[in-house]
Specification:
With about 325 residues, the chain is an alpha/beta fold. Helices cover about 40% and strands about 15% of the residues. α2 crosses α3. The radius of gyration is 19 Å and the shape is globular. About 45% of the residues are buried.
């Protein structure tokens, strides 16, 4: 199936409905050769959006992606590259959303990515220690400098996004165009309810992360922790508890029941979960992760599953997760 391109909210930018992100993988779990295999498989399938952040592997993820982009030699205008600013280091001004860190952090990210600009620049988390007006003005400055084309937020409250939009409109500054929230069958409230008023006005788009709930929705944790997964890596103990702790057991039981629905329409649970996200018209792009080429190909197969999600199938999915 051909790639679908969706508008990023009310903006004129079109991004691939399925995209590829570097979280947890590039620079830590996989190296440049694997990143090359996954990114080229994605690009060949029509993916134009590649997501990153200064915090991923302490900047190494940006370096890996930058090296792949340089090696591939793809036409820059065919790509939509993003990064996110918040956690840039240990110094007193190397984190947060101050004007200083936004400007310096963006410059550092561009250096690692080997790019003159990113298409999308996100505030990776809200910063209660910095006035929202300072952040809005700093993001507007970065855009005016040509170092980013659009800016947005990640995991901000609807109230804070509305405050940023109000300031931008009052001061005739660039307003946030997109939000990057977690969204999947096990995590729905914010995207479906809290942000609901924002899709019409100001018209934000969403580039959602963790569509597979860190792999839980694939079924690979049905029988416990398999060898070599991200939960076994040093520093990922928090994720292991989230996926394999006592609180996760009811979720795993639901994921097991999801297999029947996937089998009935002839797809994997990963493809079904991604396709379910794509059914939401307020999702601009589903950011997927991959540690091997075959995994990227499987994720892309979700595009063919979307038409199979009839009202009856969608009701069946809801029944699995209703209890």
């Amino acid at each position: 199936m051909d790639m679908e391109y969706r508008k990023l909210g009310r903006s004129g930018l079109r991004i691939s409905a399925i995209s590829l992100g570097a979280w947890v993988t590039y620079g830590s779990q996989v190296g440049e050769d694997v990143a090359w295999e996954c990114m080229t498989a994605a690009y060949d399938a029509g993916v134009n959006f590649f997501d990153n952040a200064e915090a991923y592997a302490s900047g190494k993820a940006e370096t890996v992606m930058g090296n792949v982009l340089g090696r591939a030699g793809w036409k820059r205008s065919d790509l939509v590259i993003s990064t996110k600013i918040f956690w840039g280091g240990q110094g007193p001004n190397d984190r947060g959303l101050s004007r200083k860190h936004i400007i310096e952090g963006t410059d550092a990210s561009l250096g690692r990515l080997q790019l003159d600009y990113v298409d999308l620049l996100f505030c990776h988390r809200p910063d209660p220690d910095t006035p929202i007006e300072e952040t809005v003005r700093a993001m507007n400055h970065v855009i005016n400098q040509g170092k980013a084309l659009y800016w947005g937020t990640s995991e901000w409250s609807a109230a804070d996004i509305e405050a940023a939009v109000k300031i931008a409109r009052q001061e005739r500054l660039a307003a946030p165009a997109m939000e990057q929230p977690q969204y999947n069958l096990l995590h729905r409230e914010r995207v479906e309810k809290e942000y609901a008023p924002l899709y019409d006005d100001p018209g934000i788009g969403t580039t959602i992360w963790s569509p597979l709930a860190s792999g839980l929705l694939t079924g690979k944790y049905d029988a416990g922790e398999p060898a070599g997964t991200r939960t076994s890596h040093p520093g990922m103990e928090w994720l292991r508890e989230e996926i394999l702790g006592a609180a996760a057991r009811p979720k795993i039981e639901k994921v097991k029941r999801l297999k029947r629905v996937a089998d009935e329409i002839g797809c994997t649970r990963a493809q079904l979960s991604i396709a379910w996200c794509l059914k939401n018209p307020n999702v601009s792009s589903v950011i997927t992760g991959a540690t091997r080429r075959s995994q990227m190909i499987e994720n892309l197969g979700a595009l063919e599953v979307v038409p199979r999600l009839t009202p009856d199938v969608m009701r069946g999915i809801e029944e699995v997760f209703a209890s």
